[in-house]
Structures are given as C-alpha cells and as structure tokens.
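Re: weekly structure request thread

Next one in the queue (329 aa):
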Amino acid sequence: MSEEIESGEGSLNLAGLKIGHATNQEHHTGCTVFLCPPETVASVDVRGPAPGSREAVLLQPDKPIQFVHAVMLTGGSAFGLATADGAMRYLADHDIGHTTPIRKVPLVPTAVVYDLFMNEGQHPPDAVMGYQACQNATDTAVAQGNVGAGAGVSVGKWGGFQAIMKGGFGLSSIEMDGLVVGAGAVVNAIGDVVNEDGTVLAGARLGNGRWLVEENPHRVFSQLPQSPVGTNTTLVVVFTNAKLSKVEVHRLAQRAHDGFAIAIRPVHTTHDGDTAYALATSQVEAPFDTVANLAVEMVAEAIRNGVRYAASVGPLPGLASLSDQPPQP
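Done, posted below.
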C-alpha cells in the first residue's frame, strides 16, 4: 500500500529528517535546513553552469566521507552561504559532527538561489538565520510556499520579468510497504512549471492572463540580458529511508533531475543553476530502481507544490493567492 502526502502545512514522513525554515518576510528571503539523523549517506548532482555551493566536492562518489549532518538551501546568492556557519554552530552545540582528532566538525553541504531581485540585494540570509532554521526544524507541520529559501523565488522568467509568477518551497513524500521516498524543492526556474499533462501550472503569462507558451510553443527566448547566467536555480533534496551506498545515492541525485525535466520546461538552460542532493537514512532494504523511480515522481510533485502554495508578492502573482487557477492553454 502507498500513501502520497502533499500539503501547504502538515505532517508527512520525512524518512527521519527534520526540516526547518527561517524567513525574512520583509525582505523576501530566507533559508531552509534539512537536519539528518546519524549516518545519513549523501551525494549531489549539479547541472547548472554557475552554482553557488559549499561542500559539493565532498559529496562526490569517489570521496571517502559517507555521511553528512545537514543540508542547507538558502537565498541571498553566494552571500547566503553564511547560513551554513549558523547550522554548523547549532550542530556543534549539540555535539554533532564528523569525528576528528581535535573536535567534531559538522558537515553542512549548502546551495544557494539568486533572490536578490526581490530585495535589491540587501539583507541576505546570514549565520543567525541558519541557526534559527535549525531551531525551527521539525518532522511535522512543515510549511510550504513563501517560506525559507522559497521566500523570494519566481518562475517563468523565460518571457521576461513582466511575465513571471511567484515560486516557492514545496514538499512531497510517499510511503510504500515501509519504504519512504520524498523531496523538497526550492523553485526558482527560468522555465514554466507544468502539470502531468504538460499544461502550464505556473509560468510566463501574457498580459491577458493566458500563457505565453500559447504564442511561443517552443519557448524560444533571447539571451535575456535582464536574467544573466546563474540567477535562476531550482534546488532539490531527495530523501529516502532506504539503505544505499554512496555510489547509489549519487545515482539517485542524478535521477532526481528527471523529475526536474518532467515538471519544468525549459529546464537546465544556460540561465539555470539546477542542483539535486540525495540523502539516504539507511533504515530499510529496497531495490535501487524502485527508490529512484519514486524519487523522480516526488521531485516533480515537490516542484509543483512549490508553486501551488506560493502566495502573491507585490506585482508577482502566486497560485495560492489567486481566486481561480490560471487558464490552461
């Protein structure tokens, strides 16, 4: 039996992880942390041309370190990497980290989104917010939408800033015969987010409220000087309670990008810094391909939930604030 859980704020099976947000509502930025149980195996697959990240090399399958203690997703572009310092301090305060001869060193891989358009580059998330996100971490009532690293993100920028909609943070999880697979996503894509049938859920809009893709079916866009390389990034953390090796977890991160391609069009463009983490908490035996197939579905749904629960901010319309769903092409 399986049960899929999607909600704006509610309980879902996080495979032993806890998720916490810290949100600056005034300046539309924030960070989101995934706190890991002991011996969580981690890896990452980066498909973007200009990612902002920390500890990414450590997660490659040829590196001997197996376990991490948290993953941080943050706004603020490279300035937001400071949130990892706060998470490290929180973990150190709780005697959590990789054992070394002198002291335990917390390992906190971190990736950023570029949300500086929302606040003119002021007040990026810092170490204090990183610590707060850890304090707020829970495995119940995890909020979605304009929270944490999803506070200042947007989608549909392939049509120019006049056409964009609000993105956000989304979650999805499924449990099947004891196996848990889920994903969290910060959706800051240049592309449109689409439904299962390929129709637009949220993205570039025409002035009359219909979708730009109706007039431009191949989503052909110029070099978009107002949206330079690296300023559009979707970040995903896939998690499972399956027992996987580091090589398998790396392959899981690779497969996560299939979910990107299902839910975002276009995806992995020159303008995107798309990054997928994978975490395995090693509680149950499960075939890798079963885990990976479910992960692809959960990534796509987490991305869709990121826009479903996004509220309007200023001139940026969000689905959660609209009285009716946007028209379908």
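Residues 86 and 178 are 34 Å apart (CA to CA). The longest strand covers residues 29-46.
Next request, please.
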